[in-house]
Design a protein that fits this description.
Distance between the termini: 43 Å
Number of domains: 3
Radius of gyration: 26 Å
CATH architecture of the largest domain: 3-Layer(aba) Sandwich
Shape: elongated
Helix content: 40-55%
CATH superfamily of the largest domain: HUPs
Number of helices: 15
Strand content: 15-25%
Number of strands: 15
CATH topology of the largest domain: Rossmann fold
Length: 464
RNA sequence: GGCGGAGUGGCCGAGUGGUUGAGGCACAGGCCUGCAAAGCCUGAUACACGGGUUCAAUUCCCGUCUCCGCCUCCA
């Protein structure tokens, strides 16, 4: 089976065919950089990171653009609240998001355009919209005329007449459902000049402008959180298609991370920030937790479930380390389990994919127990290959370098631990188990877990 | 009001019209082991409720209940 993806626009599974063979273009709605990222934000980044890795696996040139919304009402409000310049506030949190994505092993996007850097493209798009009669200026604002575009509502399945309309002030709107492309400047707010007066971008406009700028008037996949379907993505599509651009060919949306049944949001006070999480578990363990459920299923956050993921990930890790210790460096396998491939091709079914990965781990462990090193190595290579496609390969330098902050200190630690383990080995050979156990206990007290197996002793830093 | 999602064993989380309910975690027993840990093997009357279709439904259809999301900013 070839790759099939669930397309929100058609509410159906569709076989994926890129516009240009051997490539894939993806636009993901990134963050509005108004605060510290929580695990819900990062889930989105992670889900599309997995998509991107899967698309790139057969050599496709994947172009992934993930924008940064660095100007918006909330950014201005929060910056003011904290007495900071809005641009400093935005960049500070942009960095926090980048750090979080990076910490969790998201490959960097091809580009991450900022809204403030693309006013020219937005003005150009507004010109095109106004020329075609799909937009109008009123009192310094520019609105999209929803009635002018019959397809409006197609993406989200909304009927125009049924849409509750809120969007704040209705100043110059011809129809309350018209949405804002450009906000006229208010005193004291940042603004950029346009033919219709100074102002700042409406939220939706930037994504159409930037996606088109970097991926062309038509591109393969547009993604984001499920909440963005309406109105954000509906509006993006309307803006772009109204001027005749093809825009996104597939729409993908990831589900929420909830807490106590409610979505995470600061106002509810149920946010778990990434730095906080990484104090409790290692990055790949958190990644495992967020990447294993299907991207369209809600994750109801719980400490217990997170701990289960930690154990599950460590099982994979322990197997690979065991094989590496016994047989040397394990290569990254290219032959994957057929079930893994089938699962991933089926709308990125990571639950079954990880299931097959675990089956392979068991197979490898069995081989190891039977002393069949060759089979164990083969299984390990396969496991690495599959794990890597999920960004979860425990042996990847990413997870090993980042955990050892200081190589000098690390080397000293290794030398000391090895020394103690040698001493312990002598004690065990002399059947002086009291001494051997005492040494193990001392290491444990220092945060170092020791496990004996037929090939010798393995030790790991356990921060729990 | 409109649109959409969910309700599966102790827990997380897949999936399917029918004889064998993925995978993980936890627990129990066994093997292995100086011990521990790990590993391997084995273990439970699961599919919200009520109808319907069917030889057969957890899986399809209808209805009910419960929960959640979007329609204002949101990953």
């Amino acid at each position: 089976m070839s790759l099939h993806l669930y397309d929100t626009a058609t509410r159906s599974m569709r076989e994926f065919h890129p516009l240009v063979n051997g490539t894939a273009s993806i636009y993901v709605c990134g963050a509005t950089v108004q605060g510290v990222p929580h695990i819900g934000h990062v889930r989105s980044g992670l889900n599309f990171d997995v998509l991107r890795r899967w698309l790139a696996r057969d050599g496709a040139d994947v172009r992934l653009v993930r924008n940064v919304t660095d100007i918006d009402d909330k950014i201005l409000a929060k910056a003011a609240e904290h007495g900071r310049p809005w641009w400093e506030w935005a960049l500070t949190h942009e960095r926090a998001f980048e750090d979080a994505y990076d910490a969790l092993g998201c490959l960097p996007p091809s580009y991450s355009p900022r809204a403030t850097g693309h006013v020219t493209q937005m003005v150009d798009l507004m010109h095109r919209l106004i020329d075609k009669g799909h937009a109008y200026a009123a009192d310094g604002d520019v609105y999209f005329a929803v009635r002018s575009f019959p397809e409006y509502g197609a993406l989200s399945g909304q009927k125009l007449d049924e849409v509750f309309q809120g969007e704040g002030e209705v100043r110059g709107k011809r129809d309350p459902r018209d949405f804002t492309l450009w906000k006229g400047a208010k005193p004291g707010e940042p603004s950029w000049p346009t033919p219709w007066g100074a102002g700042r971008p409406g939220w939706h406009l930037e994504c159409s402008a930037m996606a088109t700028e970097y991926l062309g008037s038509e591109f393969d996949i547009h993604g984001g959180g499920i909440d963005l379907i309406f109105p954000h993505h509906e509006n993006e599509q309307a803006q772009s298609r109204a001027v005749g651009d093809g825009f996104a060919r597939y729409w993908m949306h990831n589900a929420w991370v909830t807490m106590s049944g409610e979505k995470m949001s600061k106002s509810l006070g149920n946010v778990v920030s990434i730095p906080e999480m990484l104090n409790r578990v290692r990055a790949p363990e958190l990644r495992y937790y967020l990447v294993t459920p299907h991207y369209r299923s809600t994750i109801e956050y719980s400490d217990g479930a997170l701990e289960e993921s930690v154990s599950a990930y460590r099982r994979i890790e322990a197997f690979l380390r065991r094989v590496a210790q016994r047989t040397g460096v394990v290569p990254l396998g290219e032959d994957l389990c057929p079930e893994f491939v089938a699962a991933m091709d089926d709308d990125l079914s990571t639950p079954q994919a990880t299931g097959s990965l675990h089956n392979k781990v068991r197979e490898g462990n069995t081989a190891l127990d039977a002393g069949d090193d060759a089979a164990a190595r083969e299984a390990a290579a396969c496991v690495r290959g599959m794990a890597d496609l999920l960004g979860l390969d425990p042996l990847s330098p990413k997870w090993n370098e980042s955990t050892s902050t200081d190589t000098g200190a690390r080397q000293a630690l290794v030398a000391l631990v090895e020394h103690v383990l040698e001493e312990r080995l002598r004690a065990r050979k002399d059947r002086d188990f009291a001494k051997a156990d005492a040494l193990r206990d001392r290491l444990k007290a220092a945060g170092i877990a020791v496990e004996d197996n037929p090939d010798g002793s393995q030790w790991t830093l356990r921060d729990d």
